[in-house]
Structure formats: C-alpha cells, structure tokens
Amino acid sequence: DTAVSQTPKYLVTQMGNDKSIKCEQNLGHDTMYWYKQDSKKFLKIMFSYNNKELIINETVPNRFSPKSPDKAHLNLHINSLELGDSAVYFCASSQDHGAGNTIYFGEGSWLTVV
Amino acid sequence: TQLLEQSPQFLSIQEGENLTVYCNSSSVFSSLQWYRQEPGEGPVLLVTVVTGGEVKKLKRLTFQFGDARKDSSLHITAAQPGDTGLYLCAGAGGTSYGKLTFGQGTILTVHP
C-alpha cells in the first residue's frame, strides 16, 4: 500500500490554465505538506497543514491554494499557471508538526507548463 | 532564514571508492536528517541525528552531526552502483513546525 499517494504523476498544461494535484495519506498522520522541487533539485516547503489547519505558508504566490478537506487529504490548486511553475511537487506527511519528525514523501507530480 | 550548504553538488566515482558529503550551516538545528531520492520517486529518510557529536551507522553509511549542531556529514565506504542517487540533508530548527530546510543536494553516480 502506498503511504502517501498523489495524482496525477505527470501533468502538461498551457500557460494560464488552472490545475489541481490531489494527495492522500493512509498513515494516520496529523500533518501534511506540499514541497516544490525545482530543476536544480532544490526542495522547498510551500505549505503545511496540521489537522486541516494551515500552519506554514511560505512565500508562495496566492495563485497556489491548498485545501485540506480532512487530515488525510491535502490538495493543491494552482490558478493561472505560469512557465515558472514547472517543477516537481511533492506531497508529504508526518506524525505531527514537531521538529525532527520523519517526513514521508509521495512520488511527486511532474508539472510542465508550456 | 536558515540555510544549509551541501557539497559537493555532483560526485562521480568508481565502485569501491569512499566518499563524503558535507552539509554546513551558520545556524543551529535541533536535528538533522539525511534523505535519499531516486529518479522518479520522492525522498526517503535514511537517518535523523539529534545530539551534537552523534555518529550513526547504517551498513556502509556513516552519519555525523557536528558538536555545535551546525553541520553534518555522510560518509559512504566502498560505494556500490546501488548507492547512486540524490542525497539531501535537511535541518529542523527549534522554532519550526516540522519545517525542514533542505540543502541543495548531492547527485552521486557510482560507476561499475
């Protein structure tokens, strides 16, 4: 069973479109995250939710809107996609939001904006 | 802003060689983690070090946390082609809510 699963794995879309990436974890964790990995493999946190409540919101354009319907799901909606949004987006989860917890990552969603 | 500088960025070696990857910061971290990421997959945790000066071994991999908890190293002995991948260090700060600061990563290629 996949612990953290995200869909779609690959997404190619045109500039200006709106797209969503879905994420689900079956680990019973309280905290979920969205990370962005750029073309140089640099991984940076975007958002973190704990029990459906937003606790980390890094400097991310407001075109990116996370939604957590329950603690097992954290979806990412992106409006008006731009070329610079092309990256790999990783969903992740951890037991809680304490520092040093093991973070379990999904397999990533490869977004290409053309 | 906490920054982690990881070096080298690229490492290409022959099977059987030893290597060390470094992770340095001017900030103190409450813990430091090492992840390995294979192509097409997400990062997977290898180890967490918490105590200054701590050394942890995972088969041929040795991880060390600096005494001041500002730096860490990963040493691989007798590298094998299966060790090929992206290695990431990540630090957790005292005020973070599970927020990890990642280094730039080291792409390791071990040739048979």
Describe the structure in your own words.
The complex is a heterodimer of chains A (114) and B (112). Chain A is mainly beta. Helix content of chain A is 0%, strand content 55%. Chain A has strands spanning 4-7, 10-13, 19-25, 31-37, 43-50, 53-57, 64-70, 73-78, 87-94, 104-105, 109-113. In chain A, strands 2, 4, 5, 6, 9, 10 and 11 form a 7-stranded mixed β-sheet that branches. Chain A has a 4-stranded antiparallel β-sheet with strand order 1-3-8-7, with no helix packed on it. Chain B has 112 residues and is mainly β. Chain B contains no helices and 11 strands. In chain B, a hairpin with a 2-residue loop joins strand 6 and strand 7. The N and C termini of chain B lie far apart (40 Å). In chain B, 36% of the residues are buried. The A-B interface holds A 4, 31, 33, 40-45, 48, 50, 55-56, 90, 92, 94, 96-108 and B 30-31, 33, 37, 40-45, 48, 50, 86, 88, 90, 92-94, 96-100, 102, 104-105, 107.
Q: Return the average pLDDT of chain B rounded to an integer.
A: 92
Report the span from N to C terminus of chain A.
34 Å
**Quaternary form:** heterodimer
What is the arithmetic mean of pLDDT of chain A? Answer: 92
Radius of gyration of chain A: 13 Å
N-to-C SSE string of chain A, H for helix and E for strand: EEEEEEEEEEE
Q: How many helix segments of chain A?
A: 0
The greatest inter-chain interface is formed by:
A-B, 29 and 27 residues
| SSE order of chain B | EEEEEEEEEEE
Total number of strands of chain A: 11
Write the SSE topology.
The complex is a heterodimer of chains A (114) and B (112).
Chain A: E1 4-7, E2 10-13, E3 19-25, E4 31-37, E5 43-50, E6 53-57, E7 64-70, E8 73-78, E9 87-94, E10 104-105, E11 109-113
Parallel strand pairs in A: 2-11
Antiparallel strand pairs in A: 1-3, 3-8, 4-5, 4-9, 5-6, 7-8, 9-10, 9-11
Chain B: E1 5-7, E2 10-14, E3 19-24, E4 31-37, E5 44-49, E6 55-58, E7 61-65, E8 71-76, E9 85-92, E10 100-102, E11 106-111
Parallel strand pairs in B: 2-11
Antiparallel strand pairs in B: 1-3, 3-8, 4-5, 4-9, 6-7, 7-8, 9-10, 9-11
